[in-house]
Amino acid sequence: MKWLVSLVGAGLVMITLRDLFHTLWHPTRHGGLSRLVMTALWRLARRFRAPGRVVGLVGPLAMVTVVGMWALTVVLGWAIVYWPHMPGAFTFSPGSKAAQEPALLDSLYLSLVTVATLGLGDIAPDEGWLRLVSPLEALVGFALLTATVSWVLEIYPALTRRRVLAIRLALLRDADPTTPQIDGTAGALLLESLATEVARVRIDFTQYAEAYYFHDGEDHSSLAAMVGYATVLAQRGQAAERPEVRLAGALLTGALNDLAAILDQRFLHTGGPPTAVFAAYAADHGRDGAQP
């Protein structure tokens, strides 16, 4: 029975590590804890029509919630591993009152101390297999901390790339170049560079799906509001006379179609054409979408 309880705790730890792995290093559209938490908070904020400042907190708050749940589950899982073997399989420092406490409390305490890599030493494993398991928990705690830092450092550059593209589209919308104006080498380079940036954002939505649930602030920095104008530029490029401009317009159209497919597959589920997907994307982020 003791081993069965310990296996339950080990299973809880493995579930957490699997979720962490699929969130950071092998993202899938099947989601996990992070996707469930972020989707729930996002839908809740949109359903009650929370103001922009509140919606802007959804992404960071969801990340903090997910990391907290990861840490809590790891600590609880390892405490369950220790619990059936407490106190007989452990050595307590002289004068310590820890052995007088309930076994579950001592197990939680030991798990917290170990996962935080504090190494206080007042409770130490005595059996051989536990002496191997405890350092492993410390390694998992270190990996969790490293993964959290890595997650933050990966998400925010992705947000920056998305917002830079939105601002660039906003500036182009204000200038509103016509088909004759982009029918040249400069126009071809412009459309090709936009296609490259759209492709980068598409990859970001694949690799860092949680970035979708971050609010972009004002319209000029919101891709949800500005992506519609990119389709206008692509159409004008394809209507140009120069073949290199038409090619660049076709590249931008292809990149936008690919982006729409990812947005629809992972987040929106409209089943419609790219224009409908971008309209749903704008609506989901509280935007109207840029019009020609």
From TrEMBL:
Boundaries of every Potassium channel domain copy: 84-153
Transmembrane regions: 57-83, 138-159
Record-linked InterPro entries: K_chnl_dom
Keyword terms, alphabetized: Membrane, Transmembrane, Transmembrane helix
Gene3D superfamilies named in the record: 1.10.287.70
Domain of life: Bacteria
Name recorded for this polypeptide: Ion transport 2 domain protein
Source organism (scientific name): Streptomyces griseoruber
